[in-house]
Amino acid sequence: MQILWTPEMIAFFLISLAILACAVMLLSFQKVIYMALAIGGVFIGCAALYILLGAEFVGISQVLIYAGAITILLMFAIMLTNHEAVEPEARWTVRRVFSALGCLALAAVLWFVIRSVQWPQGDAATDINQGHPNAVAIGLMLFKTYTIPFELVSLLLIVALVGAVILARPPKEGE
Amino acid sequence: MFRYWNGYVYVVIFMLLGVLLPLAALWVLGPLLRPNRPTAGKLTTYESGVEPIGDAHVRYNARYYLFALLFVIFDVETLFLYPWAASYHQMGRFALVEMLLFIFMLAIGLVYAWRKKVLEWT
């Protein structure tokens, strides 16, 4: 397999390296708060990967929602729980062997799927962006074609908000 | 295509500057410039001028979790503002009405949370 060393390729390798490093840190840290920081790193790396693939809007939403909100949510969850106990070292070597086998099988399946997939080649006629930048095209689609689903999203968000308030509100006196 | 990617070179340069400037200021220039005379009082953790009590790793009240949940919901709302703002000039008045409706719906949610006394600190 020939690898073309374009700037994009170099950026891809650097970003992948950063993501993998953060993922390994996530798995190997002992303290949960460090794990939350590492998962934030993974999210930011994924955002960089999306931007590299030309999907800026997905990248921005990854930073805003995942690296921003979800990581904060994880931090809060960690702060709210007691986690002084350190997990004991995993000693089941049989389990480790089987998990290694499972990982290898998954990697093999992914490899064959990636190798066999045929990506459709886009051209000017099938360009769904119609020459607009991504965010503009998404906006046009969202606010012209899919108006009702967009307004329903606000309903969904309000349901989530009310549910969160009801679930997480501390019980009143005498309740 | 190539010119488009060149824009991200500036992004990378600014990211590097953003990381390197504080590092240079705090780790390289700072120790050279500032006097270093530590005393026991100076080395204690700053806690609003009060003597620090116990560990920083305490459990927080569960009600603060609600702030995080509300933040996630309004963060999702903000995300929808971005494509709206980017494509506003191609759409005109109708899009404004749509977004006002969207924000109005979420404002109802905010008012609900307010009325339920979720936003209070005590």
TrEMBL record, chain B:
Record's keyword annotation contains Zinc: no
Main location: membrane
Gene3D superfamilies to which the protein is assigned, alphabetical: NADH:ubiquinone/plastoquinone oxidoreductase, chain 3 (1.20.58.1610)
GO CC terms in record: NADH dehydrogenase complex; plasma membrane
Family matches, as Pfam families: Oxidored_q4 (PF00507)
Domain of life: Bacteria
Catalytic activity annotation: a quinone + NADH + 5 H(+)(in) = a quinol + NAD(+) + 4 H(+)(out)
Membrane topology, as annotated: Multi-pass membrane protein
N-terminal signal peptide: none
EC number, UniProt record: 7.1.1.-
MF terms in GO: NADH dehydrogenase (quinone) (non-electrogenic) activity; NADH dehydrogenase (ubiquinone) activity; quinone binding
Record keywords, A-Z: Cell membrane, Membrane, NAD, Quinone, Translocase, Transmembrane, Transmembrane helix, Transport
Subcellular location(s) per record: Cell membrane; Membrane
Regions that span the bilayer: 7-29, 64-82, 94-114
Family the entry assigns: Belongs to the complex I subunit 3 family.
Function summary: NDH-1 shuttles electrons from NADH, via FMN and iron-sulfur (Fe-S) centers, to quinones in the respiratory chain. The immediate electron acceptor for the enzyme in this species is believed to be a menaquinone. Couples the redox reaction to proton translocation (for every two electrons transferred, four hydrogen ions are translocated across the cytoplasmic membrane), and thus conserves the redox energy in a proton gradient.
NCBIfam families: PRK07756.1
Quaternary context: NDH-1 is composed of 14 different subunits. Subunits NuoA, H, J, K, L, M, N constitute the membrane sector of the complex.
HAMAP family: NDH1_NuoA (MF_01394)
Name assigned to this protein: NADH-quinone oxidoreductase subunit A
Annotated source species: Alicyclobacillus cellulosilyticus
